[in-house]
Amino acid sequence: MTTAPVPEKLVGALSSGLAVLRYLSAASTPMGMSRIARDTELNSSTCFNLLKTLVHERLVTFDDSTKTYTIGLGVVELAKGALEQTSYVRMLRPHLDELAIRHRITATLWHRTIDERVILLDRADNASAMRVHMSIGQRLPMYVAALGRCMAAHSGLSAAELRSRFSGLRWEEGLSFDKYLSEVKEARKLGYAVDAGHFVKGVTTVSAAVLDSSGHPLMAISAVGFSAQFTKTAIKALGEELRDRATEISRAMSGRKVLATG
């Protein structure tokens, strides 16, 4: 594990606030302001103002009867996203392993972020001597490659809105918007999408979207391999298995039947 580089300028108030949060999260009992200030080596006035702010943000709880502070449930809310992602990875890893071995591809799990991008959460490699490698944490535009067509198919965006997103995407092999839109519609119909070397020359991706309980795209499972290894029959079989697994996962995560969109 590598240590993050120290920025040229640290924000002192933020560092001090985090120091207080870490102190309270490690404390076994509620703590008074004077004790917190002393143990964190903060000025009393600074510590008091930080605690007031943290209480306001629901990250810290104040007990007026004892004049003490404890860590608040707001911290759990902040951690929820990271905890959910970890849970997703554990639950979906067996699917990725089975896909990678059965189809001799690299299986990847992508999670949607709030800025219309996706991040690679996990991958499973096959045993081939030559295979496509992708780095955990890698980010891509949400609507690119096969996974992008799946996301677009369930996004509820109009053709004009998709055209606007498409204009900002980069493809190694030329792709017209009309063909892209046609393949988005096909993905909505089939439940999976294919990118045959448009995003990266010589590389084919097949993807299916994992949907939330409202039918909106949450994640995508993608199979990545060299285009030469795929036949039309292999792509169809792979796409259908991705679709079926994504549907199963969607239902398991939502706890009820997944609604289709579009």
Proportion of strand residues: 15-25%
Radius of gyration: 24 Å
**Uncertain segments:** 256-262
Spatial strand order of the main sheet: 6-5-4-9-8-7
Number of E strands:
9
Approximate shape: elongated
Total helical segments = 8
Largest sheet: 6 strands, antiparallel
Alpha-carbon distance between the termini? 43 Å
Helix content: 40-55%
Q: What is the averaged pLDDT score? A: 87
Q: What structural class is derived from the secondary structure elements?
A: alpha+beta
Sequence of secondary-structure elements: HEHHEEHEEEHHHEEEH
Can you tell me about this structure?
The protein has 262 residues and is of the alpha+beta class. 46% of the residues lie in helices and 19% in strands. It is built from eight helices and nine strands. The protein has helices at 12-26, 33-40, 44-56, 74-103, 145-153, 159-166, 177-190, 232-254, and strands at 31-32, 60-63, 68-71, 106-112, 117-124, 139-141, 193-196, 203-211, 217-226. The strands form two sheets. The protein has a six-stranded antiparallel β-sheet with strand order 6-5-4-9-8-7. A hairpin with a 4-residue loop joins strand 4 and strand 5. Helix 5 crosses helix 7 (177-190). The longest helix has 30 residues, at 74-103. The chain is elongated and about 70 Å long. It starts with 11 loop residues before the first helix and ends in an 8-residue tail after the last helix. The model is unreliable at 256-262 (pLDDT under 50).
